[in-house]
Amino acid sequence: MSAAEELVGCRVVLRPFVVDDVPAVLTYASDPEVTRHLQWDAYDDPATAASFIRSTLGGGDTWFARAIVLRDTATVIGGADLRVVSPADRRAELGYGLARAYWGNGYATEAAGLLVRFGFDRLNLLRIQAACAVENERSIRTLERLGLRREGRLAQYRWKAGTARDLFLYAITRADWAAG
Ligand SMILES: CC(C)(COP(=O)(O)OP(=O)(O)OC[C@H]1O[C@@H](n2cnc3c(N)ncnc32)[C@H](O)[C@@H]1OP(=O)(O)O)[C@@H](O)C(=O)NCCC(=O)NCCS
Questions:
Q1: C-alpha 72 to ligand 1 mean position (Å)
Q2: Which one of 3.30.750.24, 3.40.50.1110, 3.40.50.170, 3.40.630.30 gives the CATH number of domain 7-179?
Q3: pLDDT digits (tens, 9 = 90+) for 116-149
Q4: Which of ligand 1's atoms lies nearest the C-alpha of 103?
């Protein structure tokens, strides 16, 4: 995928972030409900959003961070990313988040599904994984809808809000994906 290339689904498009997306990024990045289970904490500073957007533009061939945009309205509703954590092993990690107003419509499943297909079809990956807080029931359902399988529990893996949290490790292999 070149920096400008879009991944197009039925209802959403994934495209590179642009500087004008700062307000949309802040809509979800400033919401503690959105960041409750994430590695990073909520922020409401436009400079931080702009810096995040600039960082996504330098992802090269290993970090594909994209805005999730509704096709109907061109509204940016969230972000999704695929990070090739080990090129030699053809392994990547998946992440996603939506502004709360857009939860419950299947948009994250569609967006992440586009990245999974891109990862296997175009990047020739062997494995795509995701680490998800054990309390993050919505994301667990999303990962399972995508066909990722729970492989285990990562005990006390993430320090968040003063506590060590357990995460579930989920993954889908190229063979699983091709089968079905
Ligand atoms: C995780 C997160 C993206 C899940 O959002 P979501 O909207 O529930 O996820 P999906 O896109 O998979 O939507 C599925 C829901 O939409 C419903 N839905 C409604 N219309 C639908 C449609 N046309 N197609 C598919 N699903 C639809 C499904 O029934 C499902 O609801 P359910 O889980 O209550 O049964 C969201 O909670 C979020 O942004 N959380 C904060 C960030 C985060 O935790 N990221 C994950 C880190 S591991």
A1: 19
A2: 3.40.630.30
A3: 999 999 999 999 999 999 999 999 999 999 999 9
A4: 7
